[in-house]
Structure formats: C-alpha cells, structure tokens
Amino acid sequence: MDEGILLVDDHPGFRRMARRLLEAGGLRVIGEAADGRQAVALAAELRPEVVVLDVLLPDIDGFAVAALLAELPDPPVVVLISSHSPLELGAEAGAPNVRGFLPKDELTAERLAELAGLRP
C-alpha cells in the first residue's frame, strides 16, 4: 500500500484545487480519477492509503465505488466528499472502509488527516 491519496471527482478544477490544498498541508496525492470506473482501476494499480471520493460521479455513484474499493486486497480508507449535505444525498455509506464525509468546501489537509487517520 502506498502512503498517498487518490482524488476522485468529475470536475478537473476541483481536483486541481484539492491537490494544491492537500499537498500544501503535507499530504501526498498519487493519482486522480474523473469517474468511478477509473477510480477503481487506479486504486487497484496505485494502492493508495486513502481515496477522497466524490459521491456524485457520472458513471457509478460514490457509495457503490466505496463498496467496490472495499473488495480490493488491503482496501484503502475512503472519505466521501460532496457539495451536497449528507441529508440531501439521502444515502448512507455502508462500506466498512468509509471513514466519514466532508463537504467539499471544508476539505483541508488537517480535516482529511483527522478523518482518515493520516499524519501530515
């Protein structure tokens, strides 16, 4: 397992901003994916410690992606993100590897490290 982060969001601008924020806070981003299928493939290849996963993706929703990631050998920790509140999403993350939820506008290296158990 690589001690790095995989960012998954369908908006390139958000991925760029999130990468800058996380790296400025001392965390290492090792990859980016724009959809659920790419996220699962990259997670299997890169073996990140943490996946920061948007709930609303164009192909597979983040809850289903989290469940697929949980099936990988040595599955990554997942932190779900969204611009919508958890109540608006109306779903619960049942995958055992999901450690929490962060609104996109509250994503910082410190908050992510706290939820995922990382040390920046």
From TrEMBL:
Keywords: DNA-binding, Phosphoprotein
InterPro entries: Bact_response_regulator, CheY-like_superfamily, NreC/VraR/RcsB-like_REC, Sig_transdc_resp-reg_receiver
Organism of derivation: Sphaerisporangium krabiense
Pfam families, per database record: Response_reg (PF00072)
Lineage: Bacteria, Bacillati, Actinomycetota, Actinomycetes, Streptosporangiales
Protein name per UniProt: DNA-binding NarL/FixJ family response regulator
Alphabetized Gene3D superfamilies for the sequence: 3.40.50.2300
Domain of life, source organism: Bacteria
Domain Response regulatory intervals: 4-119
SMART domains, sorted: REC (SM00448)
